[in-house]
Design goal:
mainly alpha
Length: 48
């Protein structure tokens, strides 16, 4: 994938860093919620 600019500007780097910091815990949380819902939807003897 070729981009017009060979490297990121400081502003773009800052935006990407902020996005990464914000989305990482959100994705962790969504993964945890998805697991919890899957466990609740299919209750097994292993849990509770």
């Amino acid at each position: 994938m070729q981009t017009v600019y060979p490297r990121y500007t400081m502003a773009e780097r800052l935006v990407l860093a902020v996005i990464a910091v914000v989305t990482w815990p959100v994705e962790r949380f969504l993964g945890w919620v998805r697991r919890k819902v899957a466990i609740d939807m299919a209750p097994s003897a292993d849990h509770r």
